[in-house]
Amino acid sequence: MECKSCGATIDHRDAFCSLCGELTRSGKPFDQKLKDALFDFGEELSKLAGSAARYVTDGANRKQVVAGGAVVAFLMVALVENPISSGVSKLFEFEAPGPQLTADGLPDFASYSDVFLAEEKQFAVMGTANVRDFPTSQGTKVVGTFSGGEMVFVRQVQAFDPTSHWYKLNTGGYLWGGNLESIDQRKHIAGFDFPTSMQGQWADRNSCTGLSQDTAFSISGNEVDFGGSRYSLFSIVRDGQGIPVYKLLAIGRMAVPDWERSLEKDARWPIIWISYGSDVTGKQYRYFPRHLSCSEVSKISAQM
Fold it and tell me: In the chain, what are the helix, strand and coil shares in percent, each to the nearest 5?
């Protein structure tokens, strides 16, 4: 198969051209593949019609067509190597399918190559999910594990079982689609708003020490704004004492690694604790109501 961009020879299963990086037909979503196939069919049909007209009207071939009659002409077009037969053969050239099975009906891992069906998306992991070395649970190895609530970036691939949905992680390995839930679904769950006691503006009140300015954030509805970096509430879990922990997800992919954050309202004090990453038990940073005076902040800090 040739790359349509640079003409390099590439494997029909490659999602991208190894020379110029152009997206190949194998790497495109199904609807785009269908559009490309219909366009190619139209082009080949047009070429076929032109080749047929040139072949029949060519003086060098006209005597053969007339002398042989309609039957002989048909056999020539169908069986002899010529522009028409070449055009017809191209119409019936199909890409080899993706994942193959052996003669015993088992996954053929040796010949496997990724065939992507969609663009990369962000999902939430539901419950414990095993990461496997190939997109099937049959005969594969578990190479990692995710716990419920973790966020992943994945891209759907063609699986060995065409009725099953498997996704490739951007870090490598494959997850079964039954263990994933889209972020869009999570965002529309009814009642996923912060409680009234957490709504409003919060700050670390470092300005009370005179050493630095306050770092602040605000909570409104189910969103948190950290100085322009917006996060959305997508999950509520419980810590070891049964206190709700509100897990956040950055709206839009961020370049920094701490794109997942958790908030917890202190059970005794007017404080919100913030943790970064998947660990929600650290209570790494504390924030006070922004309107709280420095004397009140000092009093609370002394009693904690």
Answer: 30, 30, 45
**Between the CA of residue 184 and those of 5, 122, 188, what are the distances in Å?**
35, 9, 7
Q: Which of 260, 237, 256, 239 is nearest to 248 (CA)?
A: 260
pTM above 0.70, yes or no: no
Question: Contact 204/214 with Cβ under 8 angstroms?
Answer: yes
According to CATH, the topology of domain 120-182 is SH3 type barrels. (2.30.30)
> Coil, strand, or helix at residue 14?
coil
Q: Which long-range contacts (CB under 8 A, 24 or more apart) does 3-10 make?
A: none
Asked if 89 and 126 touch (Cβ cutoff 8 Å), the reply is no
Domains in the chain: boundaries: 29-91, 120-182, 196-303
How far is CA 45 from each of CA 23, 64, 84, 89, 147, rounded to the nearest angstrom?
25, 25, 10, 11, 53
| pLDDT band (50, 70, 90) for residue 255 | very low
